[in-house]
Structure formats: structure tokens, C-alpha cells
Design goal:
Strands 1, 2, 3, 4, 5, 6, 7, 8 and 9 form a 9-stranded mixed sheet that branches. The protein is α/β, with parallel strands linked by helices. A hairpin with a 2-residue loop joins strand 3 (63-64) and strand 4. The protein is built from 9 helices and 9 strands. 33% of the residues lie in helices and 19% in strands.
């Protein structure tokens, strides 16, 4: 059993769920999680959180139903220069950011351009996790990206929604295997992420955990149960 889930979405993400943050925390409590990250989609996602929503998050309760909450954002990477869809002043008020490529805002490009986008976005000190870089539509130089992640204190995720049968990013297993190989090579930690839109899949790492364990990835580099270390990495500026 893992104790944290750092990539989840509430109703504020604009699609996939009508669950409030309280609903999310209640589900996390039932599943005996200790730490939950709420990371709604950035403003460039249709109908997602506005700047005022993310500003208001900083005043939200830090504990609900005996679960500690961190408030972040899943940023949209907008171009190969690493531009994102929330102003830096607001990012610095949040606990952490996940940076991801989504087709609505960054059309599939060359391996060089996709890699450049991830390398550049990691220069932002608020970016602490790269989201679902396993997407088969976006080829990436994983060696270069993971090496830079280690240098910038950025975590990689194993995304349950990528590896589960209901995933929509193609067969990501070979990409995930290469990500794990590079993380082992450069000793870069990972987090298992549900990417749950709503309460149903919070803390569900069925396929991600099985994949990681079959790959014999070192448990010491999986941070979901190392909550003090995880929080320290997320809070570093």
C-alpha cells in the first residue's frame, strides 16, 4: 500500500468529474492515504481552473478527513521554450507544479522539439514533477530529460492512467521501461501517480506499481511512502 498520490484532479479541472476537493480528501482518507496532492489543470485546458482559482487555493484547509493536502497545478507546456499557462507569481504561491504536454496546447512535434520543451520547463524552479512523458505521440530523448531532471530536482512519474487498459496514450510500456532505466542510471526518484479525475482512482496504482515491480526498480527510489523526503523535494525552490 502506498501512502501518497500527488497527481489528482477535482471538478475545477473542467472535465471528467464533479468531485470537490472535500470529496477527493474523503476518498483518500478511506483508502488510508496520508498525503494528497490536488493538481487541477491549468487555464489553457478548456473550462479548467482560472488564475483566481489557483490564487484561492492557498487559503484552503491543509488537512481534511485526517489527510494532509498539498495544492498544486498540472501546467500545460505551451511551446518548446517551456512556456506554461500560469503566471510565475501565482506558481510561487502554490506548493508545487506538474508540467505536462497535452495535445490541445502542444501539437505532436519532433523528438528534438519535445525534448527541448521538457528540458526548458524544468528550468522553472516551481516545476517538481514531469507528467506522463510516456505518451507515444511525443517521442522524447529520455536519457537527456531524466539526466536534467536529476540536476534540477525534478521527479518523474509512473502514470496509472497511461498503463491501465483504459489509457489513451497508446502502448506506453516500452517508453515507461526506458524512463525507469534512465531513472535507475541517474538515481532519479519517481512517484506513482493515479492521475485520477475524481475520487474513484485516487491512490490506485494497480498497473503502475505492477509495472515498476516487474522492472525490479529500486523501492528506495519510489517516494510515495517516503513522505518527508517527498515533501522536501516538492518544497525546494
Amino acid at each position: 500500500m502506498y501512502l501518497s498520490d500527488m497527481h489528482t484532479h477535482s471538478i475545477a479541472s473542467g472535465h471528467g468529474t464533479s468531485c470537490t476537493i472535500s470529496d477527493m480528501a474523503k476518498s483518500a482518507s478511506r483508502k488510508e492515504l496520508k498525503l494528497l496532492g490536488i493538481t487541477d489543470h491549468g487555464p489553457a485546458t478548456l473550462a479548467a481552473g482560472t488564475a483566481s482559482y489557483f490564487r484561492s487555493l492557498t487559503y484552503s484547509p491543509r488537512k481534511r478527513f485526517n489527510v494532509e493536502l498539498l495544492y498544486g497545478i498540472e501546467l500545460n507546456i505551451l511551446d518548446a521554450n517551456g512556456k506554461v499557462d500560469l503566471e510565475q507569481e501565482l506558481l510561487e504561491k502554490l506548493d508545487y507544479s506538474i508540467a505536462s504536454i497535452h495535445a490541445q496546447n502542444f501539437h505532436p512535434a519532433s523528438k528534438e522539439e519535445n525534448t527541448k520543451a521538457f528540458l526548458n520547463v524544468m528550468k522553472n524552479p516551481m516545476v517538481k514533477i514531469l507528467g506522463h512523458i510516456d505518451n507515444t505521440q511525443y517521442p522524447v530523448d529520455y536519457d537527456a530529460v531524466v539526466k536534467a531532471a536529476g540536476e534540477n530536482g525534478v521527479l518523474l512519474e509512473m502514470n496509472e492512467a497511461s498503463l491501465a487498459p483504459y489509457g489513451y496514450r497508446g502502448d506506453t510500456r516500452s517508453n515507461c521501461a526506458e524512463i525507469l532505466r534512465c531513472c535507475r542510471k541517474y538515481l532519479v526518484p519517481i512517484v506513482l501517480s493515479s492521475d485520477s479525475h475524481g475520487a474513484e482512482h485516487i491512490g490506485d496504482f494497480t498497473y503502475a506499481a505492477d509495472f515498476v515491480h516487474q522492472a525490479m526498480f529500486p523501492e528506495g527510489l519510489i517516494l510515495n511512502n517516503q513522505i518527508p523526503k517527498l515533501k522536501m523535494i516538492l518544497s525546494m525552490r
